[in-house]
Write a structure and sequence with these properties.
Blueprint (H helix, E strand, L loop, with lengths): L15 H21 L3 E2 L1 H4 L1 E8 L5 H11 L4 E5 L1 E9 L11 H8 L6 E9 L1 H29 L2 H24 L3 E2 L1 H31 L5 H33 L5 H20 L1 H7 L4 H26 L4
Parallel strand pairs: 1-6
Antiparallel strand pairs: 2-4, 2-5, 3-4
Length: 322
């Protein structure tokens, strides 16, 4: 199935300045958001206790806050999916220690407010939260380093740097959107960010593979024209893959429930940004990084020459000439 004709070449590189300017603006905005507004760290990373309570009627959030704030310091009460369900968050350092029987305590404290049930109680210690934060950061760093090594080995350094810069672009904007919409940063969000790394890299590798094939089979010496041709020929595949993934993640976001929303929202943003960067950001970076078609073809010719020489020596050895 083709959405865009492979015979038509779109001049993406003619507008690369505009696309990169938009990306720079989004990255700066994301960084400002994270530095000023910060991230809404979930219990997984900062530690504490989270209690999910469902009322038969509408939950009286104001009264719940009044009752709990008398006993616990820094408690947070918010709606969870509907006006009947609430999430109560207790920080690690509370005025009174939060114990394992918190569910029973909540039942006792909120009993005058109506009928309800405590659906779950999750407890994460401060030490565990700190360890999860460190491991999460390490996971992202090691993933980026592994990608850099893989792409550099498969292509060459300019392709690797362009890929990693595109990934940093995607992750930064995704984190900025998480901050903008006050999404809880938990292990699900971390999993979504790692998924975005793989998804975006896959899209970028498809485009880079096509660029390399065009360099080999074409006599074109202008890199911008060659990139336009390569991106245009992969546009249908990229669009179909992205739309399929987008609608699946959108379904999760709309109907998957509140628990999965941090994961699905982050992934939804990542799919959009990752598709955009693989088309409009990764390829133009090759031009600014000084990639030379002639040097690339020369290196390929030298590798082919060495391969043929090895084959010739192997044949001579097998025939007893050496």
């Amino acid at each position: 199935m083709e959405i865009f004709s492979q015979n038509r070449i779109y001049n993406f590189m003619n507008m690369r300045g505009l696309f990169v300017s938009i990306s720079i603006f989004m990255i700066i905005s994301a960084l400002i958001l994270v530095l000023t507004k910060g991230l809404n760290w979930g219990i997984d990373f900062k530690g504490g206790t989270i209690v999910q309570v469902k009322f038969v009627d509408s939950a009286p959030i104001t009264k719940i806050r009044e009752i709990l704030s008398k006993k616990y310091e820094g408690v947070s009460v918010t709606n969870f999916g509907s006006d009947k369900e609430v999430i109560i968050k207790f920080p690690v350092k509370a005025k009174n220690s939060v114990s394992k029987d918190l569910g029973d305590t909540i039942n006792e404290l909120l009993k005058p407010l109506g009928k309800f049930e405590v659906r779950r109680v999750d407890i994460v210690g401060a030490k565990v939260g700190g360890e999860l934060t460190q491991k999460g950061i390490k996971a992202l760093i090691f993933a980026v380093i592994g990608i850099l090594i893989y792409v550099a080995f498969r292509f060459e350094w300019s392709f690797a740097v362009a890929s990693v810069l595109a990934l940093v672009h995607d992750i930064t904007i995704s984190i900025g959107m998480v901050s903008l919409f006050d999404i809880d940063v938990n292990l699900d969000v971390l999993a979504a960010l790692l998924t975005i790394l793989g998804y975006s890299l896959n899209d970028t590798i498809v485009v880079f593979d096509r660029i390399r094939e065009e360099i080999i089979v074409s006599k074109e010496k202008n890199l911008a024209s060659l990139i336009n041709s390569s991106v245009s020929k992969t546009l249908s595949r990229t669009t179909l893959t992205s739309l399929t993934t987008f609608f699946v993640v959108l379904t999760l976001f709309l109907f998957g429930g509140e628990i999965i929303k941090p994961f699905s929202f982050t992934l939804l943003v990542g799919v959009i940004v990752g598709t955009y960067s693989s088309i409009f950001i990764a390829s133009p970076l090759l031009i600014w990084l000084g990639f030379k078609i002639d040097d690339f073809r020369k290196n390929l010719a030298e590798k082919e020459k060495r391969r043929r020489e090895k084959e010739k020596l192997r044949e001579q050895f097998e025939q007893g000439v050496l």
